[in-house]
Every structure is written in C-alpha cells, then in structure tokens.
C-alpha cells in the first residue's frame, strides 16, 4: 500500500521504491544474506525466510522466530522456502528437508524480560478501567495498556515495598496493594502506605468488601480488618481456622470467605467466624473462587475441589489438572474456572472437562500465580519472568474416519461416507478417527462420543481417538463423535449410522426357512 516492494535475493533483502533500490535497514541483524522467501502480513510486518531460519521485520529490527525448546526439529537451523498464512492468522512454514512448521504468534503473546519484566515474578494481576492492567511483581508495580508498559510504581514513589504479593481494584477506582512490608492504596496518582497496626508487615492477600472494609491476610498472624483508619485483628483465638490466610473473597450473600492454609475455610458473617466444613480432603488451601452459579472452588496443595452447598467434588492431575498444587483460581467471563499451578502450567474447567496449557503451548511459565480476565475475553497469566496474554481463536474443524473394523472386515472411508452400516447385535465394532486441526499438540486433543438412541449424555472425554460400539439391541443408531482442542473449540459433529439386526436365528425374516 506504500508503493514499496521487497525483493529476496541470494545477497540480501532489498526494498524498491520508485526507481530507488536500498538494502533493508539493519540487515546485519540477519545471520545470512541468503533470502529464500518473503511474506507481508496485514500489520505490514515482513516475514523473512533465510537459509538459517525465520525472522520477522518491522522496518527497523529483525526478530528471530524460535521453536519451543522441546521440539524435535528447530526452525532456527532450517532453510525456509515458503511462508503461508491461514484465515485465523496462523503460519505454515515450508522448509527444505525438515518438513512443515506451524507457528501461532497471536494465541499467546508474552511480555518477558525483553518487554520490561527482566528478573521478575508476577504474583498479582488485576484489570482496571480503559483496558488498563496493573501487574504486581517483586520489583514494584507495572501499569499496562495495549500490552505495553505505560507506568511504573516502586518504593521511590511511596510503596512500602517493591515486592507485591496481591492487588485488589474496587469499583470506585481504588487500587489496594499488598506487599512484604505493609499495604498501600493508590488513586489519582497518589500513594498512601500503611504498616503500623498490623500484627505482621507481610500482607499475603488483600480484599475490599461491599462495605469498604479492607481485609488483610498474613502468614502466621491471622487476618486484619481495616476500616475508617482503624485496625481490627483476628486470629485462631477468635475462631479463625488458621493464622495463615492466603486468599479472601465475598459471596453474593455478603459473607466473607477466608482460605486458611492448614486449617480449611473460615466464614465471617459480620459478627463471628465459623468453619465452612470439616471434611475437606486437604486443608492446605491457597485460593478460592465463586463460579457463576455461586459454587465455591477451592485451590489446594493436592488439587482442586468444588462445593455446591451440599457436597464436595475433588479433581486432581488424574482428572486433567496440569498439576495438583493449585496456586490461583479465577472465573472468566464465560463462567469457566481457570487454575494456575506450581510447575504444571494452567488448567481450565468447562462442561465437565479439564484442559491444560503449559510452556510447550506458548505459556510464559509453568508456574502461574495470578490470573485476570478482561472484558473482551482475553486472559492474562502471571508467572516467572513476565505475563502471557491468551486470546484463542474460535472455530470449528472437521473429523474424518480413518477406519471402521467389524467382525466381517474393515470398511473404507468411502463405504461409510453415506448410508448406514449393517451389523448384528453384540457385534464389537471399532472406530478410529482423526481431527483435522493443526492448532494444538496431539496430547492436548480430547474426544467424546454418545449414542442418542441410548443416552443423550456425552462420554467422559479421552485422549484416545479410537472407540468401540457394542450394540445389545436391534434398531437404528447414530454413533456421534466430537473432538475438543486445547482452546475449547469443538469439532463438527461426526455421525456414523448403524442398522443393527438380531442374529440370524432370532430374526424372523431369516429364520422361517430354518424352522420350516
């Protein structure tokens, strides 16, 4: 659109404008002059394939595109001969001798040491107005807008400490800040710090309730209520389940819930503390969250539990969690539950399914200690060395039949594309399918099935793409299969029709000659 043209040559990258030919600015950042392929995207970023890897170019700087560290083949070592873009902004990169590479630069967008988070761990993230996000690190506060740092706050500006442990932003525009040396409030460019009156200067968590009482958790000294500049301290002597308070939140009924590590959950009704229940599978609790139905989710050392007011259901790594040690829980705008773990990445629960993401998928870190959900559906994960913006593409994708094995032999794809498959009762039929989806790793794909004529409920999702059908009664059946990827995109429904008849000696049409 600017009237410029880019030319790939064996002696470098050149730009033509009018009758003038110039070599690309900062060409020396490339490892080689041998340019094999070019692609210009909608944002006017130029993708440059060389005989020593793939680079993006913004007109001033070349940035190397790297494979994940666990990849069998590294794109950094390859001759890149072709670059193609899909409708949902995913790249396919063709190489000489190493096959095809897939690159997704938009689902995960990481801000790390190159973006101002060098040597930091992000323990708190909270959204504010106008698409701004406050990020608490162990080197102070960072304010983001449009995925760029626009402000910083530290001890130099009045914070009690640079080590931020928690953040809470109120509807009235007040930011409450928990640190290792007290707490602070920030509004309209002004910071006010507090430390005297606290039983412990280490404030593990901070929460402002509907009455504008600020609750402050500690590690070993109970909880403090801060109201009208007065401090009210509570401990186990007052009925608190434990003096280690790691998370605080309020229910729709106005009750205050406290995650008491080692003691369980305490509830404050405005007058006294009560234990929520004594039959928790693990009282080492890090985090709490309410879903859209006001079910209470509990993040523990040994997994995640959910309490519906009557009973408790627990989930562990064997149920699909990334890791049992759950540091943070968050409900997103769609009502899904996100669980950040210590060492395993992040997991999401939706419609009875846990799906997990980690560094192999593009996540900034496998240790996630903070999660924020933005109005536009984007999620922010805070961990070691920075944050990840997660903005998956929504789409559906097809399933294909690889093989259907019956007692009488294998059926080809063509024979099952239309019509129905004839079978008899008690036949064991094996079905093998594949999802046409290059967006995630194979181990992140789940499959489920149902037979509506038997039950409308879906099966428990499985990683295996093979299924067995063993009809016990005669009749017409539709065997339905669906795949789910790591972004919770569902495939198009694959329906295989079966006509099941009784065995020949129980079928009147075939048994008449036999009976005479």
TrEMBL record:
It holds the Pfam family Reg_prop. SUPFAM superfamilies: Calcium-dependent phosphotriesterase. This is Two component regulator three Y domain-containing protein. It comes from marine metagenome.
């Amino acid at each position: 659109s600017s009237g410029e043209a880019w030319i790939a040559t064996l002696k470098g990258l050149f730009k033509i404008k009018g009758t003038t030919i110039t070599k690309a600015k900062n060409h020396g950042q490339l490892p080689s002059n041998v340019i094999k392929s070019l692609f210009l995207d909608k944002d006017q970023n130029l993708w440059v394939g060389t005989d020593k890897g793939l680079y993006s170019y913004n007109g001033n700087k070349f940035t190397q595109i790297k494979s994940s560290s666990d990849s069998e083949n590294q794109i950094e070592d390859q001759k890149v001969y072709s670059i193609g873009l899909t409708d949902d902004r995913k790249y396919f990169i063709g190489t000489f001798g190493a096959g095809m590479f897939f690159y997704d630069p938009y689902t995960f967008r990481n801000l790390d040491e190159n973006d101002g988070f060098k040597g930091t761990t992000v323990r708190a993230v909270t959204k504010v107005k106008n698409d701004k996000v406050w990020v608490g690190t162990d080197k102070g506060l960072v304010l983001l807008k449009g995925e760029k740092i626009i402000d910083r706050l530290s001890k130099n500006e009045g914070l009690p400490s640079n080590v931020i442990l928690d953040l809470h932003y109120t509807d009235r525009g007040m930011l409450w800040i928990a640190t290792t040396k007290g707490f602070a409030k920030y509004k309209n460019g002004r910071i006010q710090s507090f430390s005297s009156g606290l039983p412990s200067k280490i404030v593990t968590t901070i929460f402002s309730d509907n009455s504008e009482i600020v609750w402050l958790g500690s590690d070993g000294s109970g909880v403090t209520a801060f109201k009208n500049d007065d401090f009210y301290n509570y401990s186990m002597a007052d009925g608190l389940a434990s003096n280690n308070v790691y998370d605080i939140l309020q229910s729709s009924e106005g009750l205050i819930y406290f995650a008491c590590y080692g003691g369980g959950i305490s509830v404050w009704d405005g007058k006294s503390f009560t234990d929520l229940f004594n039959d928790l599978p693990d009282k080492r609790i890090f985090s709490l969250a309410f879903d859209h139905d006001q079910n209470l989710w509990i993040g523990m050392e040994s997994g995640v539990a959910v309490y519906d007011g009557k009973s408790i259901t627990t989930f562990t790594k064997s149920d699909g969690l990334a890791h049992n040690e759950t540091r943070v829980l968050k409900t997103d705008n769609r009502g899904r539950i996100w669980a950040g773990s210590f060492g395993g990445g992040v997991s999401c629960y939706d419609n009875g399914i846990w799906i997990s993401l980690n560094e192999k998928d593009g996540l900034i870190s496998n240790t996630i200690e903070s999660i924020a959900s933005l109005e536009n559906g984007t999620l922010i994960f805070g961990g070691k060395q920075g944050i990840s913006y997660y903005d998956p593409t929504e789409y559906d994708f097809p399933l294909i039949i690889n093989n259907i094995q019956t007692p009488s032999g294998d059926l080809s794809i063509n024979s099952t594309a239309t019509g129905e498959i004839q079978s008899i009762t008690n036949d064991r039929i094996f079905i093998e399918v594949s999802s046409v989806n290059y967006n995630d790793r194979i181990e992140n794909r789940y499959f489920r099935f149902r037979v509506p004529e038997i039950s409308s409920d879906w099966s428990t999702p499985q990683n295996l793409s093979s299924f067995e059908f063993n009809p016990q009664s005669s009749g017409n059946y539709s065997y339905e299969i669906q795949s789910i990827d790591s972004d919770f995109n569902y495939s198009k429904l694959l329906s295989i029709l079966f006509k099941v008849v009784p065995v020949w000696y129980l079928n009147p049409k075939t048994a008449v000659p036999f009976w005479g």
